[in-house]
Each structure stands twice: as structure tokens, then as C-alpha cells.
Specification:
heterodimer; A: 455 residues; alpha/beta; Rossmann fold; 3 domains; 5-stranded parallel β-sheet; 17 helices; B: 533 residues; 6-stranded mixed β-sheet; 4-stranded parallel β-sheet; 14 strands
Chain lengths: 455, 533
Amino acid sequence: MLELTPNEYKERKALRINPAKTCQPVGAMYAALGIYECMPHSHGSQGCCSYHRTFLTRHFKDPVMATTSSFTEGSSVFGGGSNLKTAVKNIFEIYKPRVIAVHTTCLSETIGDDIPTIIGQLENVPEGKYVIHTNTPSYVGSHITGYSNMVKSMVKYFSKNTGVSNGKICVIPGFVNPGDMREIKRILKQMGVPFIMFPDTSGVLDSPMTGKFEMYPKGGATVEEMQDAGNSSCVLGLGETAVSAAARLLGKQCKIKEHILGLPIGIEATDDFILKLTEITGKPVPEEIEEERGQLVDIMIDAHPYYDKKTAAIYGDPDTVLGLAEFCFSLGMIPKFLITGTPDPSFEIKGKELFDKFGAKDGFVKHSADLFELHQRLKSDKVDLLIGGTHGKQIARAENIPFLRMGFPILDRYVHPYMPMVGYRGAMRILELLLNVLMDKREADAADEDFELVM
Amino acid sequence: MSKAIQNILDHYPAAVFRNRKEHILEKGGDKKEITANTRTVPGIITSRGCCYAGCKGVVLGPLQDVCVIVHGPVGCSYYAWGTRRNKAKGRNGKNFVQYCFTTDMQESDIVFGGVKKLAQAIDEAVELFHPPAVMIASTCPVGLIGDDIHAVAAAAEKKHGINVTAFSCEGYKGVSQSGGHHIANNGLITKVIGKGDMKVEEGKFRINILGEYNIGGDGWEIGRILKKIGYEIISVMTGDGAYEELINAHAANLNVVQCHRSINYIGEMMHTKYGADWLKINFIGVDHTIKSLRDMAKYFNDPSLTARTEEVIAQEVEEVQEDIEKYRKILNGKKAVLYVGGSRAHHYQNLLKSLGVTTVMAGYEFAHRDDYEGREVIPSIKEDADSKNIQELKIAPDPEKFKMRLSKEEYEKLSKEIPLNYYAGMIKDMPDGSIVIDDLNHIETEEFIKMLKVDILFSGIKDKFVAQKSGVLSRQLHSYDYGGPYAGFRGAVNFARDVSMGITTPTWGYTTPPWRKEPAITAEFAVAAGGAK
């Protein structure tokens, strides 16, 4: 497995090998699926849309519907305006969405298609229906940037402050699974906090089996909710890299207060999230939440002999990696390598702050990195646990490292999109999976006489 | 036009109606000619991919010892990384199939050009891996900004002394993956095939397998049977294939072609350039595997090979017969729709038939008219602006390596018996009344499944869960749902078992909750409004 990877790391300037990121449009498509009755539209070659739908379907194991402008060589020379106009007409007539959310591709960005102008020229947008857009050049940022940009466009196109406060808080979740969005909503309800949340892919990409295919499943934020978001008392963005831009824009555009936190992964970040909710609303923390927290701490203490001082390498999206790293530190583990493919200098700053906070001296943190580099570094500095999406499985096998699948994308396992990693319950789930891989490894390596019934 | 087709088309606005009706026909009806390999209407939820996907994803990607660098932003290379199940073992110590290489172009590369970065990426790859060959596949922005990847390749080839070949397969070229196949075929015939020293030897049973991508290990299963009979496989294009083997492909006595659409160009070009014939075979299903093996034996016309062929067929059939019968009992009477790329929608019909499953509708994602109607229609296919953009190479016989394998008389006699340099297409094998559909899209899939009361949809991942949400089993015929191999005798059993499993799984039975089936029961005790606390 990966035999061609040399042991020694050598800096590369031009060749990216085994990336830890993908391109903007797929993140925009994912965000758009968090709008109720929305058709994400890819303005570019057919291949982009086909790859993105395939990729998301492989992660969620649910239908991912999206359309494409189907560029040809002609449209690439003369511009894609007429393709987009034809597409919008056909989409409204055939698939009848409430919203078409257009994102661009490297193709339409390179030729410079001016999407707002094209949208302005559209003649067939039915009453009460919308065409929104975001620019997602694939040669800038990553899928996280694309998610960020599409969420920003939701704010830009929809959110208005009408001057009458709705007494709700607007929560914008970062790039997480529908299971996480569901859990964030459950916590808000438990706290008794009235809220608006968008995007919201729960009920869309974890939809139930009913025997009937729905082009637009029940989940997703409605247009009215996104409009009304501007009347919220404040906005809370969860995930600095993925949604701080959208939260700030909403704050500025609608003159409401902004709060930005990391993803509530693990005990400390969930504490921050709960504290922030009490700080905003003045509401006390209900007993159920305190009970869940207590259960989590109980498990953390009980199981500590199996993970204490274990080293880990974590890769993936910036907000997720930082959340998982902090949780590992709270468990008494040592996350030694933090890697993201997403270009994001603040990731390194925040990673170093984490290392300092927990007194980790030789931690390695890098943005714009790839899995080839991580593998090379792990060859000379082996860790006890590898945490990240499916693409690390080859490294785990090559180096015989226990592997915890967490984050995005997970292409080779089931159930994960339904389950949370956020909140106290999410932390319990992470802990269960983490313990399983570490303890399975200990048992797999044990001699018969050391193979114990009780652990 | 049949009522089913008319009903579907009624969903469309006028322009889409006019377009789509040309892509659908009923076998045995008045309409004989299908429109294929033309643009998809913008806004339609198509399953089609792009030129890059056909070139890098399909044809080049499986070559195990080649470092294929995708020149473009990160996504295109990322999506084609380990996602197609083209298995490879890495025979020469070089297995690049597990890796993903890209220049990960940034904004500055788009503005100022990416050729320097590409050249450096090649240098870095050569220094790290010492590959026998490097291939460059370009994505959309590269063609638009005018990076001359062919000049970069030529310079790198000189600098490093290895084969460096560039493929301008920008996603916007052509109308589907098909253009990319052609571009890949052109590059391989020009720069790779025929560069080795192997000589053609008469009396040897040397073959190349073309258009076999070793999905789920299909190529290995086919190879096992062929080697058992006594064939020597020089190269496979391209599943588990290798550059080091492709260079000697010219020395084969026969090319056998599994996927016609993706590789027929190489079959034809090798025929012209080296004199090797190609034979359309189909190793899917027991009957067609037997026929293919017998056709190959006929070509070589060697008594011992023919005898050995029959011996192996008897052994293999004996091994699987009982299982096939067992699964036939489960599947008999079911109806299926096949929608796959460029050959499988045809190849699987016979296998399904042998299991008692009727194919009521079949279509290709990126085929041309000849894949539907047979190669005899090629002269009448009208070229349009999109197909003209894909270069048609002018091939001449190789002055040293050209050698006719058969005499004129032998050739004429044989072409009457076996599909020599010929593919009859899908439609002829389909029963009257079945529907043939090109570039099947979402709404057509959803509606036809309902209207034709289909039991199984054989398609890809994008359709799979659409069908299954509506209660219809869907099996992926691109990836075999991570099972396989499905080719050959044993593969037929794997396929039958997997499909039967989908039909018999008890899980479908839970779709409707019991309280939606039974009349509401009388409450034993009533809970006060607002619920008990």
C-alpha cells in the first residue's frame, strides 16, 4: 500500500499529491441542498455537476439532485449566458423548484461569465421564485470556501431587516453532516431558544425511506426563514472558516449582533456553545443538557486508560480538525499533526494556540498541505491514531495505524451522516468510535494469553 | 410513438420535447434511427460526465505504471482518485493507481499561465517516483488560458528521457465522456503503442484485450479463463494495464474488444497501422462468454486451441450451472432497465435473460449511433460542430511493423462467421416493444420506472437512491456496488447472487410502518391533550 511514497519529506512547489481538499463548487452545491425546494445549478461543463453529485451521493448515500449548464466548446468561446438562460427556463418548467442556486466553476470563471447580469436578463422566473448565485472559482480556496460563499449568497439575496425583531437567534452551521445540523437544532430546542437555522441539510440528505422519491424532501431552510433571518436578535456562526463570512455579512447587512464560535465538537467547544446561548438569551442551562454533559464526563473518566497520552494525526476541514484536536486534548491525548488542505493561514494560528494551551511542545500544524506529506511525516514520527475522512485509509493500512473515520468525506462506511459529532451526545459518539478502534487494535495485536474478557 | 414514451415527453417544454423525442425509440416501431452523441439540453439532470472524465477517468487512469498528472484546479483530479474500481496490482513495482496527482492550479496560475508549474510538477514527479511514463491531462481552464501542455511534455521528455504525453481533454470538449475516450485513444496510438521491440510471431495465440477496465476484477477473471485456454495476453487496455506492456501491443495477433465505445478507435487504428484485426467479444454472461471464446478459437483456427476451448467451457459451465439455476428461480419474471455508459447496457441484457429477467428499456450515457444500430451506420452519421472538435487521426500502415494476419480469402470467410472488425450494436439483440433511450435523464428514469413497473434499475450512483427511495432495487453497473467480478462464468454467478440478494432482502418489507397498514386500534387509555408529563 502506497509503496511509492518515499520515507523522507521533501518540499514540493508544484505537484499536489493526494489532496486533503477538493474544489469550491461541491461545497456550494452542498450548502444549496440546505434550502427547501432548491435546485443547485452548476454553471460549467457537465462533468463538474456529475462529479459533485456522485461525490456527495457517495458520502450521504441519498439522492443528490442538481442541474448543469452543459457547456460545450462553443459556450466556452462565446460565453455561457444562453446556456444559463435555457437552463433556468427548463429547470423551472420541468423540476419546479422554489429556488435555483447557481454556482460557477473554473470554466465559467475563467471566461468571465457575469452571472448577476445574466440573472438580471432572465425573463422566465415565475412569481415567488428565485434565482440566486455565488461565485465559486475552483482555483481559489476549497470546498469549504464554496460552502462559505453559497451561505453568504443566501444572506445577500434573502435576508432583510424589516425593523420588527422576531425574537429568534439565527444559527449558521459550518460544513457538517445533516446529523450534526439535527443535533444543533435539538440542543437549541432543549435550551428553549427560538431560532432560525440555515443552511439545513437535515431532512434532505438523511431523508427517510417512505417508498416515494421526493425531488425536494421535507428538510431545508425556507425562503421565508432566510428572509426573516435579518430580523433575528443576533446571528451565531458555528465554524470560523466555513461560516464567519456569512455571519458577518448578515450582521452587517441587517445590523444585528454577530457571534462566531468554532464547531461545537468535544466538551470544551460544546461548553462554549451552551455558555454563548445562555449569554445571548439569559436562559439557564436545562437539567437535560447538564445531564448529557455529566454522562460525557463520566465516560471520559471511566475510559481514560485506553486513550491517555495516545498520539494522533488529524486531517480534514479546518473547523472540524480544530474541534477534534481540542477534544483529543481534553481526553489527555496528544494530537501531534493537524493538517488541512484548505488554504487558511488562521488554521495554523489556531492550531498553535491549541498546542500552547495544552502544553504540547512538538505539535505540527499546516494548512494547504496534502495527505502525501502527512504520510511522509508519519513514517518518521508514528502516531497511535489517525483521524479523518476516507482518503486516509491507505495511510492507516500502510503504517498499521488505527483509523477513526470522522469528517468529510466518508465514502466507505454507512450511517455516519445521520449521527452527530457535535454537542455532548456527538462527543459521546466520537468517544465510542475512538475507543472501538483503539481497543480493537489492542485486541488484534494481543497474544492469546493477553486477550482479555473484561476491559 | 408508444404511449409510455408520449407520456414522458409530455413533461417537457416544446424545445426539450423536440430534442428528447429523437433520443428515444421503441424497437420494432416506425422510428429506426436514434439520435446520439449530441448535446444535452442545459438544465436537464443528465448523468453524463465530461471529456476529461472519459480521457483520464476512463482510459488513462487505470494504467498502473504511469504517473498521470492532472493539470488544473484540484477538484478534477480529486474526483477521479480511487473512485472507479479499476483494480491494479502493480506488477513492475510501480502502482500509481492509489495516488492522485494534480498541479492544483491557483488564481495566479490562471492569470499568468500554468506551464511553469506544470513543468516543475513533472520534474518533481520524476524525481520522487522515476516513472516509466508521465501523462498530462488538462482540465477546462487550461485550454481557455492557452497553456501549451504539449510543448511542456516535449521538453520534459527530452529532459528526463522518458515518455511524457499530453492529452488536451478539457471538460467542455465534445458532448460527454466520449470525446475524452477518443482523445486518449489518439494519444496512446501515437505515443505509446508500437514503441516496444516485440515482433509479431505466427502460430502464437497472442492477444490484446481492449476496452476492459478491470472493474471489480473483471479483467482478472477474463484473463484467468483465457490463460487457461492457452492465450498469451500482451496487454490490457487499460484495466490493470501497464505502459511497459502497451508498447508491445502491436505484436498481438488479435485484438479483442470488450467496450466498443471507449476503445474502438484503437482497434481500428491498429488494424490500419499494424494489420491486426479486432474482434468484438462480450464476456458478460455465460452464453456470450462461450460465444466469445468460440469466436476467438475460430479466428486462430488451431485444432488444439479449439479443443482446449471446448474443454475449458465444459469445465467452467459445469462449475456454475447449479448456482445460475438457483438464482434464476428467484429472479425469473422480473423486469429491468439498463442505463450504463457505452457497452454494459448491451452486454448485461443476455446475462439477465439467462436469469429470467426481461430488459424492458436500455440506454447508453455517451454512445454513438453505431453502438445502438451497428457499425454499418457509421458512413451515414452526420458530423456536427461538437464531434468535429475531436481530432480524427489520419493513420497509415507502419512501414516496418504492418503485417496482415489473415489472407484475403480467410478474412472474407471469417467475417461472415464472427464479428471481425465489426460491432452489430445493441438494438438488434433487443426484443420488439422494448424501449431504447439515449442520455436517459432524471425525470425519464423516475417516470419510466413507474410506468413500466420495473423491478430493478441497473444504473449508476446518481440514480441509485432515486430508484431505491421509490422502492425499486437499483444496482450500480459502473461500480458493481463494490462487488464483482461480474465477467466470465464465475462472474455471472456473483452477479446473479448480488441481484437476488437485492430482491430477497427482508429490509424492503419494513418501508411502511405497521400503524399505516392496520386500522387504528382503540386506545387502552387515553392520554390527556398535550401529553402525559
